[in-house]
Write a structure and sequence with these properties.
The complex is a heterodimer of chains A (168) and B (323).
Chain A (H helix, E strand, L loop, with lengths): L7 H12 L8 E5 L2 H13 L6 E3 L8 H4 L18 E9 L3 H11 L6 E9 L11 E5 L8 E7 L5 E7 L1
Parallel strand pairs in A: 1-2, 1-3, 3-4, 4-5
Antiparallel strand pairs in A: 6-7
Helix pairs in contact in A: 1-2
Chain B lengths: L22 H14 L17 E6 L4 H13 L3 E6 L4 H4 L3 H9 L5 E6 L4 H11 L6 E7 L5 H15 L6 E5 L6 H12 L4 E5 L15 E3 L2 H5 L4 E4 L15 H8 L3 H4 L7 E3 L12 H4 L6 H20 L6
Parallel strand pairs in B: 1-2, 1-3, 3-4, 5-6, 5-8, 6-7, 8-9
Helix pairs in contact in B: 1-6, 1-12, 2-12, 6-7, 6-12
The chains are: A alpha/beta (168), B alpha/beta (323).
């Protein structure tokens, strides 16, 4: 498929409609830095949720710390709601190996025991290395993206979302 | 010669002194410390970064506070911490410093946090580890003689940045016993590297090193003149235990001339902050009303110290040279 034609705004709408029947106003969103945070803010508005969205930077929970070290300038993880007993949806822009999701789940549990955790992503690019599957996904690529390429969500000055294909 | 603190990729291998570290590394430590400050507010006050690592606190000189903050920092990173109060154990039985290090290395240490009364002891340990092919073990200087106390200097910088945001428009005064203070040396190095335009050193001639101007500071022998218009007042502890000979008349007399009182502090900027590395001698270098006053940030310094030590330890353990 033509990767240049991916329309992030249209995918966003698709994701909102997929999620709408399954969320209640008390559902809490947590975006993974950086793309997932923008997406979580967007979903939060579109779905009319009452809990403020949280954000997670998984730098301190990555499994490649031993070989790659600390990522420079880690962001602060902010969970502005009570995790204990909450219905939480982890939000990320692109799902790849599943390692980031694993790290985010671990970090979330250090804030309390949620009643339920789901995963919502804009795009599943294939290439999973862990048993992780999204509950909602706007687009699953028919063929896994080659390892030397990456998809990146970008936010414009007025907040519009675009997807960019990057060759490593 | 390569800076012994950096590995061949230019990453921090040991933290021995602020001297010679580029601004980029100091800033990276402060930036990394920022998200660690929030860990204490979590249900589980722990991060998994140093899981399975063994950190030895090697204290050849007593210090409850510094050892405790290093211990808390290591534990919040999930490391295993062993505290050795060496002044009351092997060294007292005659074991040499490097023999102690060799024995603990044989117990699979990953990091040594070292405090020693002799200047250069942590450097000697780092050199020995390098010479014996064990440079996967990291060394953090927790205070050596009169030389350096780099994590104290860094936590002071974190505190200043937290309250003042920017280093490049500040006037900072360091007051008191600079001669015996490793803290002052680390502070001066960090402040100048981070771009503070004016660092003042205030104290009696007998308690200032003779060549202190060469560190790039302005020297004042009159505290009132020195405090005028400053943004930050960094008090030092009067180090009675390190003094030989008649450098001072009495602590009471020192307080009268050099002690920070509300009246002297009023000469600084109205929003000036007051710092102290602890432990404080109330009524000697600082008046109680100032130490407990609205401008004091002495307790935040302690809290930030844990985050800064977490940043240093995770940056050391996570660089490419380590396994």
């Amino acid at each position: 498929m033509d990767m240049q034609s991916l329309d992030a705004e249209a995918l966003c709408k698709t994701l909102v409609e997929q999620m709408r029947p399954h969320v209640s106003p008390a559902t809490a969103l947590v975006g993974i830095h950086t793309g997932g945070v923008w997406l979580a803010e967007r979903l939060h508005r579109a779905l009319g949720l009452s809990q403020p969205p949280g954000s997670i930077d998984v730098s301190f929970y990555r499994d490649d710390f031993g070989s790659k070290g600390l990522h420079p300038q880690p962001k602060r993880t902010e969970i502005p709601f009570t995790v204990e007993g909450a219905d939480v949806i982890i939000v990320d822009d692109v799902l790849y190996t599943g390692r980031t999701t694993r790290a985010a789940i671990n970090e979330l549990f250090d804030f309390g025991r949620p009643a339920r955790v789901d995963l919502a992503v804009l795009i599943d690019r294939g290439g999973r290395e862990l048993p992780v599957a999204p509950r909602w996904c706007a687009l699953t690529l028919p063929e896994p993206l080659p390892a030397n390429q990456s998809l990146q969500l970008e936010a414009g000055a007025t907040g519009e979302l675009t997807l960019r294909l990057i060759d490593a | 010669m390569r800076n012994p603190q950096l590995n061949k990729h230019g990453e921090l291998q040991h933290l021995l002194t602020i001297d010679g570290l580029p601004r980029s590394i100091l800033t990276a430590i402060l930036d990394t410390a920022a998200p660690f400050t929030a860990v204490a507010e979590r249900e589980v006050k722990k991060l998994p970064l140093l899981r399975g690592k063994s950190i030895f606190n090697l204290f050849f000189e007593n210090s409850t506070r510094t050892r405790t903050t290093f211990e808390i920092a290591a534990k919040r990173l999930s490391a295993d911490v062993v505290n050795l109060n060496v002044s009351t154990s092997s060294a007292a039985k005659g074991e040499s410093l490097l023999d102690t290090v060799d024995n603990l290395s044989a117990m699979q240490a990953d990091m040594f946090v070292v405090r020693h009364a002799a200047s250069g002891a942590p450097f000697l340990i780092a050199q020995h580890l390098f010479a014996t092919g064990r440079d996967h073990i990291h060394v953090v200087n927790a205070g050596d003689g009169r030389h350096a106390h780099p994590t104290q200097g860094l936590l002071d910088m974190y505190t200043i940045r937290h309250f003042k945001r920017d280093f490049t428009n500040l006037t900072v005064a360091i007051v008191g016993d600079v001669l015996h203070s490793r803290v002052a040396r680390s502070q001066i190095g960090a402040l100048t590297t981070l771009g503070v335009p004016e660092v003042r050193v205030i104290g009696p001639k007998t308690l200032l090193p003779t060549d202190v101007e060469r560190l790039g500071v302005r020297v004042f022998h009159d505290i009132r003149e020195g405090l005028r218009g400053v943004d930050v007042v960094m008090m030092l502890r009067l180090q009675n235990e390190r003094m030989n000979g008649a450098l001072l008349p009495t602590p009471q007399e020192f307080y009268k001339v050099w002690g920070l009182t509300a009246e002297k502090l009023a000469l600084a900027k109205p929003d000036a902050i007051v710092m102290h590395p602890g432990p404080m001698n109330r009524g000697v270098e600082i008046d109680s009303s100032v130490a407990d006053g609205a401008q004091a940030v002495i307790l935040p310094q302690v809290t930030f110290g844990i985050a800064v030590r977490m940043a240093v330890m995770s940056m050391l353990a996570g660089q490419q040279g380590s396994k």
